[in-house]
Design a protein that fits this description.
The protein has about 90 residues and is mostly helical. The protein contains 3 helices and no strands. It has one domain (about 5-85). The radius of gyration is 21 Å and the shape is elongated. Keywords: Membrane, Transmembrane, Transmembrane helix.
């Protein structure tokens, strides 16, 4: 189980590197060569999607292990009590 966060971290770095590299290629390629620009843009989008997914997985893991503090969440227990009183 300890190896999975390391692999996701590596995926995160590789994905964001691909996003920046292919994004740069998409933006600087010759506009006359639309196929090259489209391919680079699609690969950049896949890199961004994989990078975002990996980042959120790392955040989830760091919160569950206690490395990062938990997100602030409202106490909604009073809503259930109020709902049960209204329906009774």
């Amino acid at each position: 189980m300890t190896q999975m966060p390391k692999l996701i971290a590596i995926l995160n770095v590789v994905a964001w590197s691909g996003f920046w590299a292919f994004g740069f290629l998409a933006l600087t390629s010759d506009p006359a060569n639309g196929q090259q620009m489209t391919t680079a843009a699609i690969l950049a989008a896949f890199g961004a999607a994989a990078g975002i997914w990996a980042y959120f997985q790392l955040v989830r893991h760091s919160e569950s292990t206690g490395y990062a503090k938990q997100r602030n969440r409202a106490d909604r227990s009073h809503l259930e009590k109020e709902y049960n009183e209204e329906t009774a």
